[in-house]
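Record format v2
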Amino acid sequence: MSIFQARLSRVREWMKTTGVDVTMVTSPPNVFYLTGFDCHPHERFMALCVQATGEATLFVPALEEEEAKKCGFSSLVTISDTDDPMEKVRAVVGEGPFATLAVEKQHLTVSRYEQLQTVFGGAKSIAAEELLLHMRLQKDAAEIAIMKKAAEIADRAVEAGINAIAVGKTEAEIVAVIESTMKAHGASKASFSTIVLSGEKSALPHGSPGSRTIQPGDFVLLDLGAVYEGYCSDITRTVVVGEPTEQQREIYEVVLAANLAGIAATRPGQPVKAVDAAARDLITERGYGEYFNHRVGHGLGIEVHEFPSIHGKNEQQLVPGMVFTIEPGVYVPEIGGVRIEDDVLVTEDGVEVLTSYPKELQILPVK
Ligand code: MN
Ligand code: MN
């Protein structure tokens, strides 16, 4: 049984126990997870339709047919730009009646939902995410191997970015080096818009890189990730250009200690919130609590943000196979910010850090 068949049979099991007649999976990440077909159809209709009794059918835009065939899915229905997708769905599922339909409530637009109602009538709809996001929470061996490679590409890209830093260069120039390095090493794309922020801009956790030129004394924060075979990595490193001030050294040391404390708190059986607390308490004790204004991390996989969310109220237990980021930061307005982010895997007996670019404070020569 292929990995995709195994995943589909878990969907069918869930449908049986929850009394679902039909599941319509419509988000590209979940279609990819269940079929291996990696497609972003824009406004066109794409769905994996799983019936409690019988086949699973993949509906794809006609222009994607050749790509879809490559994933080897046995039952494929193509939809041209002039077809009515709902007629095609009806031809597969029949007239019903349908009591319960599972859909991705967070993904489906209201208009698409109303279209589906013309096929599924008064069926009660339940959230397919409950199952799918739960399944994606624990990565299997094949997924972990791919994610290690995605992390390795991120390591190389961060190294290339740091090597490219020089006084007078713009943030955007460093971004270009990072993104071309990722692609040269096999990434299909960046997992999000690469962030390079310098000087006071490094104090903006999600600022956008631009034409600011790097100056002596700047912190330079690099946050990037690679998509490799459909899976994301996500790493942040911060370096300083020229001799750091006492305060810069202190901020860096606090963030590094918080990153290490978060990693040390990661092991199976612990609640997720313990990871957040380990990193956050350290920053608070050192007096920088008010400058750390986001959660400690997020799950990582097919999407760059998925479950589990590493925040202080998440009681969920860590289990082997979870992959997430640990990325504490301290952002002092006007002065600058430091964030140090790693990707970690929960193992049977602890934790494995997937990203490996060095973390001790790197002081770049002013050149
Ligand atoms: Mn990041
Ligand atoms: Mn992140």
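The chain has ten helices and 20 strands.
The radius of gyration is 23 Å.
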